[in-house]
Amino acid sequence: xxxxxxxxxxxxxxxxxxxxxxxxxxxxxxxxxxxxxxxxxxxxxxxxxxxxxxxxxxxxxxxxxxxxxxxxxxxxxxxxxxxxxxxxxxxxxxxxxxxxxxxxxxxxxxxxxxxxxxxxxxxxxxxxxxxxxxxxxxxxxxxxxxxxxxxxxxxxxxxxxxxxxxxxxxxxxxxxxxxxxxxxxxxxxxxxxxxxxxxxxxxxxxxxxxxxxxxxxxxxxxxxxxxxxxxxxxxxxxxxxxxxxxxxxxxxxxxxxxxxxxxxxxxxxxxxxxxxxxxxxxxxxxxxxxxxxxxxxxxxxxxxxxxxxxxxxxxxxxxxxxxxxxxxxxxxxxxxxxxxxxxxxxxxxxxxxxxxxxxxxxxxxxxxxxxxxxxxxxxxxxxxxxxxxxxxxxxxxxxxxxxxxxxxxxxxxxxxxxxxxxxxxxxxxxxxxxxxxxxxxxxxxxxxxxxxxxxxxxxxxxxxxxxxxxxxxxxxxxxxxxxxxxxxxxxxxxxxxxxxxxxxxxxxxxxxxxxxxxxxxxxxxxxxxxxxxxxxxxxxxxxxxxxxxxxxxxxxxxxxxxxxxxxxxxxxx
Length: 573
Fold this sequence. Notes:
Elements: E1 2-5, E2 11-12, E3 22-30, E4 33-34, E5 39-49, E6 53-59, E7 71-77, H1 78-84, E8 87-91, E9 101-107, E10 117-118, E11 123-125, E12 133-137, E13 140-142, E14 145-152, E15 162-167, E16 175-180, E17 187-194, E18 200-209, E19 213-223, E20 225-229, E21 235-237, E22 244-251, E23 257-258, E24 264-268, E25 275-280, E26 286-287, E27 298-305, E28 311-319, E29 322-333, E30 342-345, E31 349-350, E32 355-361, E33 368-374, E34 378-385, E35 392-397, E36 404-412, E37 417-426, E38 429-433, E39 436-437, E40 442-448, E41 455-461, E42 464-471, E43 478-484, E44 493-502, E45 508-517, E46 520-527, E47 533-535, E48 545-550, E49 560-563, E50 569-572
């Protein structure tokens, strides 16, 4: 079992008299090279110590005692070490010296000269130029969830074949999966499972593997969440004097205890959102789970409510004094007569792929509900049913819809009664592939949420126009493929793109995006003694040279640097 040691201060040993006794061996298991802020795994065998606290150091020397320049990276209770032997994950400080190699020392004293055990192996700290680029999407979320992790700029000299991802430490049951490294340079890990965990910052450890191993990481933030199970699907009965039980299941909570009768339900007016009351529920005291596999969870906590005003309820939980508030978790509603219902949506504009949350109260019990979007096209969506208290919720994911403004109607389909609840605007999204190019390179411009039945005849890149002929259908999808980039100013910066056309009524439409245009050297020629210009790789000293390039930034100064094989440079402006 692996014990993750959270980094303590980067502290040099203290020069005071030493007294320590430790036995056993320590070995660095993995990786061979690591970025600052990453982690290494060490193995302790036959370990014993007289002190009650164990200290871990990085050291440039392998002397069996703590030296003045050693860097303390962790301190933990001896009993925790003994419980979790033999494997321990140690976090590397971000302040260690790049390019240096370090042994690991273990002792039960923080004093200079204290006896210690030392690893035979060393770990190399990578210089910044060799750090792989690791990204995670999303960077934070509730748990459990799935994320995508990508790695780029991997040094191909390492010839890494696989990558293994770990959650927080190198323990076997914290392995998130393994993926191939493409062409020794990059990897894509999709749908990586993130487990239950405590609230806050965590590390996804990245271990690149072949004959050698390289360790890096990416940060991920766990957000707390609460699932609510009410007496009815979405709600409690507004004003009910008898006890009503609402069950809470928590994820991603911090360590600690929720004291008895401290959870509050904040009641807000359905239409205005203003707070109208706060109710403190009755419930038992409960500890946030620290068990492996269920860290940060509370399961099945029964809370008792009564006489709650009609409205939307937030849940507020205190864990050892830390207050967590969760919005719009519960509805308080009574059934109403046909046509008495109220409904609303949580936003009035969005893009394809966005989610829109609808809520309602005072429906007749268990009626079917529909949502109609009425614009250039009209579409009606089956949106589930109200519950036994007349409350209703539905999450609509925007898809296969053109852009523009829609009138939104909510309909009690059982009683054939509709209400207009406002307007919603779908805005276009545009993607340019590739997002970096050069003059005379080709790009594809695609989009969703464009106006229905619109037509586009021009793409303006920078200041230059390119003709296109694109008709957008009822689904709002736009595609303009294989567009050649004209001769424009670039310089490795974003160049604006305007997509111009008109809507179904002949009104002008302009949709904006951008692309990065990089400088590109097209040719190098030299003037020979015969007065002719030639291209070639062999140029004699004194020959005038002529460079031709495109995509440079207009008006910028260009400096050309020549370097021979010995690193001698010369420049010309």
